[in-house]
Amino acid sequence: MCGIVGLFLKDPALEPNLGALLSEMLVSMTDRGPDSAGIALYTQPVQGRAKLTLQSAMPERDFAALEDRFGEVASGDLHVTVKDTHAVLSVASDRVEAVREAALGLDTVRVLAAGETIEIYKEVGLPREVVERFDIKRMAGTHGIGHTRMATESAVTTLGAHPFSTGADQCLVHNGSLSNHNNLRRVLKQAGMRFETENDSEVAAAYLTRSMAEGRDLGEALTAALDDLDGFFTFVVGTRNGFGVLRDPIACKPAVMAETSQYVAFGSEYRALVGLPDIDNARVWEPEPASVYFWDRSATAGKAMAA
Amino acid sequence: MPEFDLASAPLRDLNQALHAIEPGTNDLAFDIRNPRGSHAVAVGCDAPLTVNVHGSVGYYCGGMNAQAAITVRGSAGPGVAENMMSGTVIVEGDASQYAGATGRGGLLVIKGNASSRCGISMKGIDIVVAGNVGHMSAFMAQSGNLVVLGDAGEALGDSIYEAKLFVRGQVKSLGADCEEKEMRPEHVALLESLLERAGMTDARPSEFRRYGSARKLYNFSIDNVDAY
C-alpha cells in the first residue's frame, strides 16, 4: 500500500509551519504502511552554503569524529548538527562534492541527501516516532515530501525507507511497484549512477536524476518516465525549485491534490489534507493517469501537462 | 434525529447505531458531521434510513447499502457504494475510482466526475454520473445501467456482458467487445426514467448514445485457438 504526501508552499507566511503541516499529513497516513517513514524538506537557501544529510547506525561514534575527519576536506569550514541517527553538515558550496565523496568512503555512514536546500530524515518505525526523533515539526521550509512504507520490493531497513535522493536537491517517494527495475538499474549503472539498495523506487529516483542531468526539466523527465518505467506508480518528486506528481496509466495507486492561493498539496487520501489551512475552500481533484503535474517556484503558476 | 460528530465519536459507534435499527423505528434520519475523509462511513445499512454526511469521505462509503438513502455533501474516495444492494447513494462532489463496483441494485448518483473503473463488474446497479467517468469504466459490467452526462475515458465497457451504457459526451475509446448500439424506444424510456430518478432533468435522452456488448467474447471461438 504505502502512504505518500507532499506540500509545496506558495505563501512564505506558511514556511515556518512546513515541518508541522507535513508531519501531520504523514502521521494521518500511518495505517497505509507501518514499516518505515521519512520526510524530505527543502529549506531556504543560504548564499554560498550547501549541506549533506548523513545517517549512521552508530551515530555516537561516527558523528563525534565528523569535524576532525572532514575538517580538512571542508577547508576548515564545517558545521555539524546531530539529530538522533542523522547529522546535517553545512559546508561551503564548492566543498560539498568533496565532503560527499569522503562520507561515501565511511563504512557505517550513509549519505541520504546532498544539495543547497534539501534535508532528508528517514528511519524504520511509524511516522509519529520518526517525526518526533528528528523534531521535524519545528522545521521551516519551502516544500517537502513524505512517505510511510508497507514494504514489498526490498527489506525493511533505514536505507529502504523513502524518500530516495539520487541527485543534488532531488528526491522521490513512490507508492506502487516497478516491474522493470532490475534491467533499468543495470542500464543506469552503466551510465555511472550509484545505488545503495535493491529497491525499485531508488531506480525511479536515479532514472529521473539521470534524465535531468541530460538536460530535461522535471516535467520532461516525468513525461519520458511514462515510456521507460513499467509497473504501478504514483510518484511525488521534489527538486530544489519544484514539486511534481506522476501516476501510471492504470492509476490503481490513489492520489488526491488540493490547491489554494497559499499551497499545493498531495496526499494518498483526502484524510492527509484535512488539517491544511482553509482546506474547505481549496480546489480538490484527483490527478489524471499518465499526466504530468509540476510546480516550479521560479514560475508564476503551476503546470499540468497531458502526456 | 441522531447526529454523529466523527471529530469525537468513533466510526464504529456510528456504524453500529445504523445497524441496530429495529423494524418500526420512526427516527430514521442520521446526520454525520466532520467525516474528514474517514473510511467505511455508513457501510452495511439495511433499513430505510436517511443518512446525510456533511463533508468528504474516504474509501467505501455506503458500501453494501440496502434500503438507505445516503447523501455525501462532499466528495467520495475509492469504492463508494461498492456492492450496493438497494437504496440510493448520492455524491454531491466527485467520486474516486471504482464507484459502484459490483453493485447489485439501487441507484448511485454522482453529481461531479467519477474517476477510473466506475461501475466495474456492476451486476444490476444503476449509476448516473453528471460529469465524466475515467478509463475502464463498466469493465466486465454484467447488468444494470451506467449513464454518463459528460465524457467517458479509454476502454469503456471492456469485456462487457449485458449492462447498458448511455453516454452524452465523447467516448475516448471502447473496450474489447463493446460497441455502439441502436437507441430504440424502450431505451429512450429507460434513460428518461433513470435521468428523472437521478434528478437530472435538463438532459434529454435524444442527446445520448447507447453502448453494450457485441457478444463475441461469450463463447470460445475456434478461430481464436492460436491465441492459447
Give a short overview:
The complex is a heterodimer of chains A (307) and B (228). By secondary structure, chain A is of the alpha+beta class.
Strand content of chain B: 15-25%
Assigned CATH superfamily of the largest domain in chain A: Aminohydrolase, N-terminal nucleophile (Ntn) domain
What does the radius of gyration of chain B come to? 18 Å
Structural class based on helices, strands and sheet pairing of chain A: alpha+beta
The major pleated sheet of chain B works out as: 11 strands, mixed
CATH fold name of the largest domain in chain A, please? Answer: Glutamine Phosphoribosylpyrophosphate, subunit 1, domain 1
- Quaternary assembly: heterodimer
Rounded average pLDDT of chain A? 94
Rg estimate of chain A, integer Å: 18 Å
Q: Say how many strands of chain A there are.
A: 16
Query: Can you tell me the residue ranges of chain B where pLDDT is under 50 for at least 5 consecutive residues?
Result: none
Q: Could you please describe the fold and organization of this structure?
A:
The complex is a heterodimer of chains A (307) and B (228). Helix content of chain A is 24%, strand content 33%. Chain A contains eight helices and 16 strands. In chain A, α6 packs across α7 (200-213). Chain A starts with a strand and ends with a strand. The model of chain A has no long low-confidence stretch (mean pLDDT 94). By secondary structure, chain B is mainly β. An eleven-stranded mixed beta sheet of chain B has the order 1-2-3-4-5-6-7-8-9-11-10, with helices on one face. The longest helix of chain B has 13 residues, at 185-197.
